[in-house]
Design a protein that fits this description.
Strand content: under 5%
Number of helices: 20
Structural class: mainly alpha
CATH class of the largest domain: Mainly Alpha
Distance between the termini: 27 Å
Helix content: 55-70%
Number of strands: 0
Low-confidence stretches: 1-6, 74-78, 106-110, 192-198, 332-341
Order of helices and strands: HHHHHHHHHHHHHHHHHHHH
Radius of gyration: 22 Å
Mean pLDDT: 74
Length: 341
């Protein structure tokens, strides 16, 4: 439910962006959003749709912060690359900011690869299915993990392990190679990058993709990778973040997560959870809420495992979104709690 906003200082960055865009009017807001990626458009659009009763005080605060931020800046003589790196590193931390910085600075002139982000996964799979597995690995590494995971499910089963292993061992792509690939993609779809290597792929990227896949498909794929290369398979498994890993999230993080998850989804997701995780969830709810949840779980009829896994995936998607925005920290096997897993 949307809440009345009273202070711009209390808002998330996404909410501030939503309020600011709404204040610009349709034409100017549309002009700004044309330069945003699909994920950002979805996040800001959702925030815009949920806003109501925005006070004049809140609007003045948001606009004031914006003016203060840009007031002392000028486009003349500013090192924009350095500025972007400093801002993102300060906001996200060095580890998490690295991939984002590479994607912005090394991919800002990308056309073909960026277009793929706006396509549905089945179309992407059809588009790349005849490419060499290395090319497919680079393309999937460039996509967001959830989009890459669904795309992978539409590829031929026999090439999935090969593609995933290539993603896992991919350490980077030279700018000229990435630019050439982008040009090819742009040419096919439409029928001055930096000197550093673009950081794409890696063990964590492969693990993130598997995290977004359906349980049985993920297990089958990781088994195939382990069989082909046990060391890489184990490294990927060590980086995966599954539902029961939520036990490693601190109490404050669990409380924030519970605010975002519907009771129906939570009831179903906890059906196959470890008892320790269930108890942690109960302890971070009010006594009345925990009692009601226990009763709902006991009274619920048997559920299909696929439905339970789907509910757990939904919870994990919310957890990753909160982690990405810095509202919670996912600990455990995701790399010490500082990375987006």
């Amino acid at each position: 439910m949307a809440e009345k906003q009273t202070s711009g200082e209390e808002l998330t960055g996404t909410a501030k962006a939503a309020i600011f865009l709404l204040s610009l009017g349709e034409e100017h807001a549309a002009g700004v959003m044309k330069h945003m990626g699909p994920k950002e458009v979805q996040q800001v659009g959702t925030a815009m749709a949920s806003l109501e009763n925005v006070t004049t005080e809140t609007l003045d605060s948001v606009v004031g912060q914006f003016i203060t931020t840009i007031g002392g800046q000028t486009a003349l003589g500013i090192d924009s690359d350095k500025y972007i790196k400093n801002v993102l590193t300060s906001a996200l931390g060095g580890d998490k900011a690295g991939g984002v910085i590479d994607r912005i600075l090394l991919g800002r002139n990308s056309k073909g690869l960026e277009q793929l982000k706006w396509m549905d996964p089945r179309s992407i799979a059809d588009f790349v299915r005849l490419e060499h597995p290395q090319i497919i690995a680079i393309v999937l590494s460039y996509l967001d993990s959830d989009q890459a995971a669904e795309t992978l499910t539409y590829l031929a089963p026999k090439i999935r392990p090969d593609v995933l292993m290539r993603i896992a061992v991919l350490e980077g792509v030279q700018p000229d190679a990435l630019q050439e690939l982008d040009a090819i993609m742009d040419k096919q779809l439409s029928g001055n990058t930096g000197a550093q290597t673009a950081q794409m792929g890696g063990i964590q990227t492969a693990a993130n993709i598997l995290n977004f896949m359906e349980g049985s498909s993920s297990a089958e794929l990781i088994d195939a990778v382990v069989e082909a290369d046990d060391a890489i398979g184990q490294q990927i498994q060590d980086k995966m973040f599954v539902f029961d890993n939520l036990i490693d999230v601190d109490d404050r993080g669990i409380q924030s997560l519970l605010k975002e998850v519907s009771t129906d989804v939570l009831t179903l997701a906890l059906r196959a959870a470890e008892e320790a995780l269930k108890e942690k969830v109960f302890l971070n709810m009010s006594k009345r809420a925990s009692e009601m949840l226990r009763d709902d779980m006991e009274a619920a009829p048997p559920a299909k495992l696929s439905d339970v896994e789907a509910a757990q995936k939904e919870v994990l998607v919310i957890a990753r979104r909160l982690s990405d925005s810095g509202e919670i920290s996912l600990g455990g096997s995701g790399g010490g709690g500082d990375e987006f897993v």
